[in-house]
Amino acid sequence: MLEEYSRFRKIYETPILKSRSPEASAKDIELGAARATQLNELAKSFVLRRTADILTNYLPPKTEYVLFVQPTALQLSVFQKILRPDHVQDLVHGPTARSLALITTLTKICNSPIMLAKPDKGAGAEDGKTTRTLVQEALGLLPPGAAPDDITLSGKLIALAALLKQLRQRHIAAVCIIPTAAWMVQLR
């Protein structure tokens, strides 16, 4: 449909980018807008997009709560392993990619330390050998046979399980839990 990248670039990418340039002529702007419209129409046939407006007809009003949840002893131990002072100093003076990798690692620990066992797509040399080594050491803190569905590894999952239990006891018909990251869906 879009054929090869060189053809896509010639037909869509170059005219669209050129039209967004500050020195674009009126002709470039017109062509870029037309190609952007064509590309959007083509993409609509592949992408199913739901907006909040559509969902409001089917869902009750959204209710949000902020809970402060105590991490498990395991989570605290893993945090201590990862956040060694010498490692933090390396991050402060190192490339931004290492800091971003650390933020991803800390987020995984917050959700469930077992998530550290799942390698990041695109993790590379910039993430730092030190971070990968510390993650491997932290994985050694997990109990033998730890599984992704073990909620006792995570304070957040323990709290979620307790909340869902209460909702079930109160005969709440449906609950919508929306994870902030795709890999969180894998936590059962």
Could you characterize what this model shows?
With 188 residues, this protein is an all-alpha fold. The protein is flat and about 65 Å long. 53% of the residues lie in helices and 0% in strands.
Question: Assembly state here?
Answer: single chain
Low-pLDDT residue intervals, each spanning 5 or more residues: none
Characterize the biggest β-sheet: none
* Beta strand count: 0
**How confident is the prediction overall: mean pLDDT?**
82
Structural class: mainly alpha
Helix residue percentage:
40-55%
Total helix count? Answer: 8
Rg of Cα set: 23 Å
SSE ordering: HHHHHHHH
Question: In angstroms, what separates the terminal alpha carbons?
Answer: 38 Å
Strand content: under 5%
Shape: flat
Tally of discrete structural domains = 2
Give a brief rundown of this model:
By secondary structure, the chain is mostly helical.
List the helices and strands and how they pair.
Blueprint: H1 5-19, H2 26-44, H3 52-56, H4 73-82, H5 85-93, H6 96-111, H7 129-139, H8 155-169
List keywords for this structure.
single chain, 188 residues, mainly alpha, 2 domains, flat
